[in-house]
Design a protein that fits this description.
alpha+beta, 8 helices, six-stranded antiparallel beta barrel, 372 residues, single chain, globular, disordered C terminus, six-stranded antiparallel barrel
């Protein structure tokens, strides 16, 4: 049996059917777990900013100009602080002589303390730049499933913006195509010749940096070095990737950058890793919000994972049947869903969608969006 190839009609059916509310519970469960970590006690830890290699410092300084500190609090006299985090300025435009900037962050900053799947009503946000200047932030878009939000601020001068770069997660399981130990950093350095390509190809062990700003008397930048991992996050949000950076709670919503200073994701926090949402997913969410003025989300009715992330036993069966090294594995198909109607079965490997090759999960989760 050959790997699955989806017809254009089936692809359209998958992308234009909306998820029933009961299936969004999975996203809520992940959010609730994240909330417990954010709001509950977290073991004290310090990002190792002093151990940053020289070759990364230039990229960090370049990216830092767009990193802001955020504080949300209840409106009114003596308003209690709800959450402190970080964000990234991703856009700035001139509007009749004043500048309107867009800040990307985590929706945790705005989430209700009593209802996890709602935004707090009486909330205000302070935005702090590196020099301590502050602005009032206004919520412009949010998606509670993916736990992302954007704020808008108005200023008299243009604010610096970050460079964004989508991820290419098409990792092969063919031994001849896998880098041997010690080759990761060499391959990463060679990528400098292609730094303006449409996507940044990830590789297990690649060095990345999580950035954030302290919130208080100073808004000093901190940086936490780490490595990309292909291990799946234990949360049920399959779109999450992970790195082993050790960040502070003030870094929630801040950027994850590559060695070129390009933002590749939005950081969250866990006890033993830094989950992050790839900028591919973020870009698609924001585009849908602009088009529909709401956080509607396509639903396929199937659970997917990269072929390289499959269990060894499952991988052996897939390879013996299909003899392939890249693709997206179907782990579950929901009864009555668009995926079932399209003829997709659990255990299938999708290698083509709409006559286009599919080599990684992000290509199926969201068609590539060119940003930055």
């Amino acid at each position: 049996m050959a790997p699955k190839k989806m017809t254009l009609a089936a692809r359209r059916n998958l992308h234009y059917n909306m998820a029933p509310k009961k299936r969004r519970l999975a996203g809520r469960q992940w959010i609730q777990k994240i909330e417990e970590i954010h709001r509950g006690p977290v073991e004290a830890r310090r990002p190792e900013s002093e151990d940053i290699p020289t070759e990364f410092k230039g990229a960090i300084v370049e990216a830092s100009a767009a990193v802001v500190s955020l504080e949300s609090y209840h409106a009114g006299p003596g308003g209690e602080t709800m959450f402190v985090g970080s964000g990234t300025i991703i856009g700035c435009e001139d509007v009749n002589g004043t500048y309107s900037s867009t800040i990307l962050t985590s929706a945790t900053l705005l989430r209700s303390s009593t209802e996890s799947n709602a935004i707090q009503d009486d909330i205000e946000v302070n935005v702090y730049l590196a020099d301590g200047k502050s602005f009032k932030g206004h919520l412009s878009a949010h998606d509670l499933h993916f736990n992302i939000a954007t704020l808008s601020v108005t200023s008299d001068v243009a604010l610096p913006t970050a460079r964004l770069r989508p991820l290419d997660d098409s990792i092969s399981i063919d031994p001849s195509e896998i880098l041997r130990p010690g080759e990761n950093e060499v391959a990463s350095r060679s990528f400098q010749l292609h730094r303006h390509s449409d996507s940044f190809k990830i590789c297990p062990g690649d060095t990345v940096v999580a950035l954030g700003r302290h919130c208080g008397e100073t808004h000093e930048l901190w940086a936490a070095l780490g490595k990309l991992s292909v291990d799946c996050c234990r949360f049920d949000c399959r779109e999450l990737f992970r790195a082993n950076c050790r960040i502070l709670k003030s870094g929630v919503g801040g950027p994850l950058i590559n060695r070129h200073g390009e933002v590749i994701g939005v950081n969250y926090i866990d006890a033993d890793c830094t989950p992050f949402m790839p900028i591919n997913i973020v870009s698609k969410c924001l585009k849908r919000f602009q088009e529909n003025r709401q956080s509607c989300r396509p639903w396929s009715g199937m659970e997917l994972t990269n072929l390289y992330a499959a269990r060894i036993g499952k991988l052996e069966k897939v390879i013996s049947r299909f003899n392939i090294s890249k693709g997206v594995l179907v782990e579950e198909v929901i009864k009555g869903s668009p995926a079932e109607q399209a003829g997709i079965l659990r255990g299938d490997v999708i290698v083509q969608c709409g006559k286009k090759s599919v080599q990684g999960f992000l290509e199926m989760a969201n068609p590539r969006v060119k940003v930055g």
